[in-house]
Specification:
The protein is α+β, with helices and mostly antiparallel strands and 166 residues long. The protein is 22% helix and 24% strand. Bound molecules: fe (iii) ion.
């Protein structure tokens, strides 16, 4: 009996050590470093969870109404899930029926970059992270005041940090 327990303990600790060693860690993630990143997609592929990789690096779109931040109203800051760059304040988020979390402005002008996207026979403005160029979503001109913009974002590309309660 005692030997059995010892074996179970050994198996458990080996599993935990293995999981820790092989858990994907992201050395590029930082909430303070604003240096631009140039990391090849083949490297990101080994670091990022598959769902995030597909959206952030290959431009996939998460299914409407399924994202974790779509119907989400907490106060705090949204960061890039790939690199930790600050992207949006929760105060710029607004309720929408489009199916994705939407904001009327980024946290600062160069937090994001803009790119013409002519896929699917449309012309849209793609929004990428200003630090790591992760695909975040698109910006449209049908947002509310004060900007009239709707930054339509994939939840999976965002990383939310609530304000600390004092
Ligand atoms: Fe980023």
């Amino acid at each position: 009996m005692k030997k059995g327990l010892w074996l179970i303990g050994l198996a458990l600790s080996t599993t935990i050590l293995y999981a820790q060693k092989h858990a994907p860690s992201n050395p590029y993630y930082s909430r303070t470093d604003t240096t631009k990143l140039q990391v090849p997609d083949k490297v990101w592929k080994t670091i990022l969870p598959r769902e995030l990789y597909l959206v952030a690096r290959e431009g996939a779109t998460e299914t409407a109404f399924t994202g974790k931040y779509y119907e989400f109203d907490e106060k705090g800051t949204y960061y890039c899930a790939v690199c930790g760059n600050a992207l949006f304040k929760a105060t710029a988020k607004f309720a929408t029926t489009c199916g994705w979390p939407s904001f009327f402005e980024p946290i600062r002008t160069n937090a994001v970059t803009y790119h013409t996207d002519r896929s699917y026979n449309m012309e849209r403005t793609e929004v990428k992270c200003g630090r790591c160029e992760a695909h975040l979503g698109h910006v449209f001109e049908d947002g509310p005041e004060p900007t009239g913009k709707r930054y339509c974002m994939n939840s999976v590309s965002l990383d939310f940090e609530p304000f600390k309660k004092k």
